[in-house]
Every structure is written in structure tokens, then in C-alpha cells.
Amino acid sequence: MRMFRKKRFLLLLFIGFIILLFARSDWMGRWMYPIYYIDDIKASSLNYEVDPYLVAAIIRAESNFETGRESPKGALGIMQIMPDTAGWIASKANFTNLTLDDIHHRADISIQMGTWYIKSLERQFKERRPLVIAAYNAGPGKVNQWLKDNVWDGELDTAHDIPYGETRRYVQKVIYYYNKYKELYPSF
């Protein structure tokens, strides 16, 4: 009986060591945090001058890179764009002949529109990343109201002041994925 416990302990110790070894490896990290549609993300990021890590992090938080997703509130596609926002983006960015089905099911279209929208938010919020991320989730009107009412100062270290729990968690999640992608994909 004592010998059996010793073998079990050694086996668990060995398994723990292997897990620790693989958890620190890049390939394991990339397996756990993959980036799909890299070419589309790179092309749109380059075209609109947006950090590709930010685009990838938003996609991960929004849809986990799954096309055809629809949120309970009606947001569509890989970047979870609301139909009204998609219409606004299409008119401002001169996207023509697009349907909601394109946004919903075509990753390249959703990424292009979502990246254009991120750039629009960056201009509006002067490149302040936590504000841009919060506005992508809650809308720029809400974020401007929070700033005006001194509810939140727009800084990451005060994200706990964001009044919407969903947006508060969203900002933290996107920043987490952003940092994780920068660590795992240094040449992205």
C-alpha cells in the first residue's frame, strides 16, 4: 500500500512537471490563444492604421473567431457589429453593396468594418485605448457621458468605475487578450 502511494505521488509530480513545462511554452500558449484570419486582420489593420493585436483581442472577446455568431442584442459576425452601426459604418466608409449576411458570415467583411470602426473610435477618443475598447462595447455615447459626468476617467487602472459590469469585464478581457497576443505573437 505504501509503495502504491509513493508511485502515485511520483506520477502526479511528473504530470505536474510536464504541465508546468508545457504551460510556459509558446506553442502551448498559441494553442490556447490562437489567432485566426491573420491575413485579414493584418490587411485591415495596415489599411486603417490600427494595432492588429487590438483587432485580434476584440475579435477574441467578441466571438472567439467564430463567424455567423449573433449576440442576444443582435450584434452580428466575428466582430459583433450591431446592424445600425454597420449601416453607419457602410455610409461613412463607403462600403457598398454589403448585406447584413455579409457582415454576419464573412470574416473579411466583418474585420474590415470592425477595424474601420476601431479607427473611428481611436480618433474620437484620442487613441486612449481603454476608452476605445469601452466604446466598442457600450457605444461612444455612453462612454462620453461617463466622462462628462466624471463617472469614469477613462484610465485602465480605474476600470472598476465603469458603471456597466459587462463593459467593465469587457475592457479587462480585451486588455488581457491584447497583452497575451503581444507576448505569444511578437512578429504579428
Automatic annotation (TrEMBL):
The UniProt record lists the Transglycosylase SLT domain at 41-150
Name the coiled-coil region(s).
none
Tell me the SUPFAM superfamilies matching this sequence.
Lysozyme-like
Q: What PANTHER family does the annotation carry?
A: MEMBRANE-BOUND LYTIC MUREIN TRANSGLYCOSYLASE C, SOLUBLE LYTIC MUREIN TRANSGLYCOSYLASE-RELATED
**Protein name as annotated:** Lytic transglycosylase domain-containing protein
Taxonomic classification = Bacteria, Bacillati, Bacillota, Bacilli, Bacillales
